[in-house]
Amino acid sequence: MLAKQGVTVDSVEAGALDAAMSSLSLEQRIAVKAQLMRSGLLR
Question: Which of 17, 13, 22, 14 is nearest to 2 (CA)?
Fold first, then answer.
């Protein structure tokens, strides 16, 4: 999903991440962000 929006693993920024997840529900956004935080890709 993130790659389709042009977000690379090396450059996960809050604005780009939010834009890429704009089509998701609030619960799905929270789940994605939680997974990225657990994997160390988001601080």
Answer: 17
